Amino acid sequence: MTRSLRIVALVAALAPLALAAARAETEPAPVPPPVLSEERGDESKDAVPAKKRAVRKPVKKTGRLDKAEDKVAGGLHWRVETEAGAIHVWVPPGYDRATAGTVVYVHGYHTNSDGAWKSHDLARQFKASGQNALFIVPDAPSGNDESVKWPALTDLRKAMSRANIRMPDGPIVVVGHSGAFRTVMQWVDHRLVTQVILLDALYGGNQAFDEFIGTGKRAKHHKLIVVGSDTAASSSAFARKYPFAVVRDRMPASTAELKKREKSAKLLYIKSQYGHMQIITSGKVIPVLLRLTPLKHR
């Protein structure tokens, strides 16, 4: 082969490689599909950025847990550090353990227990309810990419014992906002949970809540309150399945505005005039709804 023919053959062989390189420089890289969120969340400054989230180790069930103690809103407050995140515990002034119950409040996405405790002013709202209860705020997932921190309510109760905090023997009321449904739905079969309050949280878990209020072996002893804003459509559809459901178009300013059948409803659905975050930050929802529970007034 002559030198000229060899050059032509070499150019022909290299042409496809050059074309591929040119395309790589001019065409954009493939974009991964977006991560779909099941809800809006708290955009507070205390939110945990996704890139800083650490994978939680399994919850240890033995060993003493340390706690820091201070006074908040006139009551005793502990912050308990666990491998499943911080737990805030608040004891109201005038607390009587002999007649008390427990309220477990589970926060939604884009925050953690520290952020929710501070930015949602939970102690003040708990105090305003006037209920004789031990109030517990555990850590929960801050996004879809985090697993449930306390899949068993029994483990949370054991953590209280390890922190040398004695829980009362009364009923347990579970309150969950937004993405908290992922945690709450796993607790509804606990024998001491008598009432669940879902604050714009019915993004999923319908089967578990059906069992809690309708088909489960202890369903006749349970009550459920559902508040809907962003979840108004799904919450309304859930309520329509039950002939005993009572529907209210606005959140009342106080329990005095409620009719007798609304107060005693096994399933009460309230369409909220407050937005997704206002429900938990306004101070006008949580205290009122806690008065519709079997808890005793202080």
Describe this entry's structure for a reader:
This protein has 298 residues and is an alpha/beta fold. The protein has helices at 3-26, 113-119, 122-129, 153-162, 181-184, 206-215, 232-240, 260-263, 278-281, 286-290; strands spanning 67-72, 75-82, 85-91, 101-106, 131-137, 172-177, 193-199, 223-228, 245-248, 267-271, 296-297. Strands 1, 2, 3, 4, 5, 6, 7, 8, 9, 10 and 11 form an eleven-stranded mixed β-sheet that branches. Strand 9, helix 8 and strand 10 (267-271) form a beta-alpha-beta unit. The longest helix has 24 residues, at 3-26.
Brief rundown of the structure:
This protein has 298 residues and is an alpha/beta fold. It is built from ten helices and eleven strands.
Largest sheet: 11 strands, mixed
List unreliable stretches of 5+ residues: 3-57
Number of domains: 1
Examine the secondary-structure arrangement and name the CATH architecture.
Answer: 3-Layer(aba) Sandwich
Please describe the structure with a list of short key phrases separated by commas or semicolons:
Rossmann fold; globular; 298 residues; 29% helix; disordered N terminus; alpha/beta
Topology:
Elements: H1 3-26, E1 67-72, E2 75-82, E3 85-91, E4 101-106, H2 113-119, H3 122-129, E5 131-137, H4 153-162, E6 172-177, H5 181-184, E7 193-199, H6 206-215, E8 223-228, H7 232-240, E9 245-248, H8 260-263, E10 267-271, H9 278-281, H10 286-290, E11 296-297
